[in-house]
Amino acid sequence: MHRDMKAWSVGLLALAAVGLATSTQAADLNWALRDSPRALFAPVNYSGDVMIMSLVQDRILKFGPDGSLQPDIASSWEAPDPLTYVYTIRADAKFSDGNPVTAEDVAYSLNLHLDPKVGSQEAALLGSVDSITSEGDKVTVKLKEPSSLWKFMPASIVGYVWEKSSVEANLASYGTPQALPVGSGPYKVAEFVADSYVKLTANPDYWGDKPQFDNITFKVIPDDQTRLLAMRSGEIDGTLNVPNTALAQWQQTADVVDFSSFIWRGLTVDMTEAPFDDIHVRRALNYAVDREAIANGLLAGLAVPASTVNDPGVFSGALTPEQVKAGYDKIVSFPFDLEKAKAELAQSSVPNGFKATLNVPEDSATISKIAQALKDQWSKIGVDLTLNMMPGGPRFQIILDHKPNLGIQVIGNVPDAPDPAQMAFQYFSSKQAVVNGNNSSNFKDAKVDELIDQAIQSTDPTQAAQLVLDAQALASEQVPLVSLIWQKSVVALKKGWTIDPTFNAFWNMTHWVDQINVK
Fold it and tell me: Are the C-beta atoms of residues 90 and 207 closer than 8 Å to each other?
């Protein structure tokens, strides 16, 4: 491995760590979901449903308690040169149907993201990959160029291992109720009834430690009040779908814990489309956003105003707090100021205002409330924003399709790896202003590209982090985004139950239920 992960340990020690074993075992866990999973198959569903996938599918590698990469399906790995990674696949792993996990399955799983016929939503995360092959018990990944990001990807959503034969037999419907996924993780999918529930049972063929629960049922309860009543009655044991506006009610019923999750919420603005190609318009939109009101009013104090994509906490361990602050002080900021917003718009190509449409995922109460706040705030400077409510999957697909005239797109994102270069790469690199890329601002700047590329290729974590800080600051001068907030997450548990302190931004890429301490 080319970057020493120990350098990231301060502040990132527990990222994606496996929880401590509990002394009391509960046979069943009932967990509430707000929305029914679209598909339990990562290539077509880059979303919160990974919380289920991570219990069913093993990954090639995993994050350990100290933030380092550790073996999972790969028993060992090496990087003989900056462009080559070789993974040795363990011999004792089986899928839940009894078939052995092979290197061929692992290579196939990674190659799914490179197959244009699959159209993987995670394809951009493998942008540096040239080829993936298998021979015997080895999987070899060849890169086009050195990439510090790649080493984390086998422990992320792209590292899930799928059974080649079962996927090929059901590719069009894989991960749906019609074609249940097969994994080698601690649980297997027993039932999946759309809009109702997903039931997991312990996988008797699991090669690792016995899972904490015999059965886990994810119950789909869309209505916030009904979900609260289910918690109160004991129908469910916990949920991560706690409405920010009802925290006080939930705290009376459950043990509610917030945790750092590095969530960034903001908007991309297509800089190639009028009127957003006018920097005065982009500045006006930024000045007209009351981030404090959104953070404190809508998010109940679980968020703070954001100035760029990376939560400053991502840099902990690589840089000192003073260095991080100095880097963020260079970012062009836009405090809420309607007079400045009007003055910028007056200098623009649309001095009297304009109309725009924002696609809003109807299955996200948080984004819906933020969108309504933006509509109200922007109306004060003459911007007539139409909110187009639509299903979350198709809305996100519009961003990934990356057709002309993307306009304004609302984004909620968390890093897939403990490396600040990832989010900077996704939103500021011209390499991401493509189909399946996240740069829906179509922001392109040669100097920013150079800084990000240097950060990704650097073997010095301190140098890489500083390069990312510089890239963020330089990109901000052209105002490609309307950054809104950095947000915490909340989990509600049955009274007396606790969550291990390692529960954090990367919780949903772990066997997270083992971090629940049952009383």
Answer: yes
